[in-house]
Amino acid sequence: MTDEGFESDDVVTLEQGAGGKGMRDLVSGILTAGFPDDSLDIGREAMDDGAVVPIGDRNVVFTTDSHVIHPPFFPGGDIGRLAVSGTVNDLAVMGATDVRALSSAVVIEAGYAESDLERIADSMAKTCREADTAIVTGDTKVMGHGDLDGIVVNTTGVGVADHVVGDDGLSPDDVLVSTGEVGRHGVALLAEREGIEFGTTVESDVRPINGVVDRALSVAGADITAMKDPTRMGLAGAASEMATKGGVGIELRQDRIPVPSDVKGASEMLGLNPLQIANEGIALLGVKPTAAADVIEALRSHPDGQDAAAIGKAIDDEHGRVLLDTGLGTRYLREPATEPAPRIC
Amino acid sequence: MSDREPVPGGPTGGVRDASGDTNALEFRDPEKADALAQRAEELVADIDADEISIMHVCGSHEQSIAKFGLRSMLPDGLDLRMGPGCPVCVTDMPEVDEAVALANAGVTIATYGDMLHVPGTSLSLSEARAAGADVRVVYSAAEAVDIAEETDDDVVFFATGFETTAAPTAAIVRNDPPENFSVLSAHKYVPPAMEVVAAMPETDVDGFLAAGNAATITGWGLFEELVEETDTPITVGGFEPLDILAGLVVLLRDIRDGEETVRNAYPRCVTERGNEPAQKQLWDVFTTESGEWRGIAHIPDANLVLQDEYAHVDAREQFEIDTASLAAGGSSLVDDCICGDIMAGRADPTDCEMFGEECTPEDPVGACMVSSEGTCKIWHEYGGRPDL
């Protein structure tokens, strides 16, 4: 298995697309290994949610994201809403809540229903209005039937940040704040795919979060020390990355983490950990302890931040690792090695 | 015969969390857990020993202990470790080789998912499948029979697990499966292994927490003989956090009092006599044979093999299984794997230099990193003894 792996080392595997260590190795080892140096403070090498390109005296944040989710329509959202939210949110968690422009590149399989395309486009338009931004340029390609599974949507975004917030800025004692409930997107998708019904339908949390994040930045500014949107690898993945990059440990309290009861129930049935599955409508913030109460109050003043909660803190111990106080004892919370299922965003 | 009174402060019924959330799960109440941990600490203090070693023998126990971080609640001086409680992990390489050889010979192999990635001498079933063999993952013995019913080709169910899966295998064998169906049994029987491990000087077990799931079939009465032979108290425990903590308290009380006896800390599921029809079925179909448990020891009467009467369903009788071609040629790292020592309770995963480095769930070297019941896989996910 190690010498002659059951998956060849020579081809790209699904696991390498899942956003964890496998993907980071693929990107830095092959994809970007020979790219010219970008000489940016927060550029490619930082592997943050976006790059910061100083233009004049402004910090322009630049990011891109391709979306391949299956199925394209799911409880609580669709690929169009996801494509706009995904890029807006990557900008927002860099501090660029003022999203100036988006591009949209769409690759469609021949035979795709125009009515579905229309639904997706309508959804993108609606989501842009929620995020107070616009799609200003784009590209459309069609591939042969069978050359692609349905539709791929790529969006790129440009935003401006007053305070650039990286994912590496945590210091010991910083409070970890979640802007909302955890676990909805991944469970909604998996339940839909597996055809499992739980009495109630779990809906994805997919939504643009630049508005709610802006509330926090306006009251706390530089007291927000780190941000990340806990997408594919879930809260555990985002927290692990923030701990590693910040050179701190993180201690989370399970009883403080807002997990909706339908997500809890569905996770038990599916054998999932809600802390390790995808979210598309929340951010994880590191906040100076003196500003934590104000930040939570500000977040809760926004409709998308009503479940905001302090869920843990950074510690000067166990550097690079995340601990979970289960309410009984304490254990490690690991970044999932692979996401529970591919094509979730 | 000792008393079987319920544990004071132990799990008795449902609890709601502070928010009144109706989804709150029973048997995870932090206050009760703290009280039990406190009781354990007092008992450990009462016992005049540098270290008390309690061994459990079930991957599901380890899952719960690690997932809820229970070790961090336990007092210093109480060492709670897993013994030979992962049937996949103790399956010996030659047993995997038999399945691989059959698969390579063109037989359809149906088995539980964990078995796919367990290393054989040179190949795992997953590697055989990648090379073209027909290897299917099933979730039950019945599903393997379904596969056989849909084809004329030979289908062999590579059967693994303790009593909890051996009983359903026995039911299938007795139920006139199709002629093209047979069973390659790697089923294991835990009590003899507990006896061997208890006798190992380096493990030095003061008490066993026995697996409540297997005991639902065997009954707790089964362990009385084992207690007599090992002079080691045994408590049968369930799998929720409060079940485990309550089981430990009961066991510590017996260790303190020098009571070598069996107790049942899982009375809502386990009875003295267990599931007698299932036992009858099990022993009608299977008998025990001595054999190697991977890396641990040669264990007398702990492998479950089919009785002669069922030779027509026994893959070892139905096929000439030639494993000679599967000569060593696998990973050289396997030689450094300390899975056996971990399964015997002689070492922790963190004692292994490959743990989390060369050996991960994505690219496992040993079976303990393959199975969800394996100590290494569990510790890799949740950590073991936190050093806080």
List the helices and strands and how they pair.
The complex is a heterodimer of chains A (345) and B (388).
Chain A: H1 21-31, E1 51-55, E2 58-67, E3 73-74, E4 77-78, H2 79-92, E5 98-109, H3 114-130, E6 135-143, E7 151-161, E8 175-178, H4 184-194, H5 210-220, E9 224-228, H6 234-246, E10 249-253, H7 261-270, E11 284-287, H8 292-300, E12 309-315, E13 322-325, E14 330-332
Parallel strand pairs in A: 5-6, 10-13
Antiparallel strand pairs in A: 1-2, 2-7, 3-4, 5-7, 8-11, 8-12, 9-11, 10-12, 13-14
Chain B: H1 30-46, E1 52-56, H2 59-67, E2 78-82, H3 87-90, H4 93-104, E3 108-111, H5 125-130, E4 135-137, H6 141-149, E5 155-161, H7 163-174, E6 181-187, H8 190-199, E7 207-211, H9 212-218, H10 223-230, E8 234-237, H11 241-257, E9 262-264, H12 276-285, E10 286-293, E11 297-306, H13 315-318, H14 339-343, H15 375-382
Parallel strand pairs in B: 1-2, 1-7, 3-4, 3-5, 5-6, 7-8, 8-9
Antiparallel strand pairs in B: 10-11
Sum up the structure in keywords.
heterodimer; A: 345 residues; alpha+beta; 60s Ribosomal Protein L30, Chain: A; Phosphoribosyl-aminoimidazole Synthetase, Chain A, domain 2; seven-stranded mixed sheet; 8 helices; 28% helix; 24% strand; disordered N terminus; B: 388 residues; alpha/beta; Rossmann fold; five-stranded parallel sheet; four-stranded parallel sheet; 15 helices; 11 strands; globular
Description:
The complex is a heterodimer of chains A (345) and B (388). Chain A has 345 residues and is an alpha+beta fold. Chain A is built from eight helices and 14 strands. In chain A, the strands form three sheets. Chain A has a seven-stranded mixed sheet with strand order 9-11-8-12-10-13-14. Chain A has a five-stranded mixed sheet with strand order 1-2-7-5-6, covered by helices on one side. The longest helix of chain A is centred in the middle third of the chain and has 17 residues, at 114-130. The relative contact order of chain A is 0.17. Chain B is an alpha/beta fold. Chain B has a domain at 89-190 and 275-318: Rossmann fold (3-Layer(aba) Sandwich), CATH 3.40.50.11740. Chain B is built from 15 helices and eleven strands. Chain B is globular and about 65 Å long.
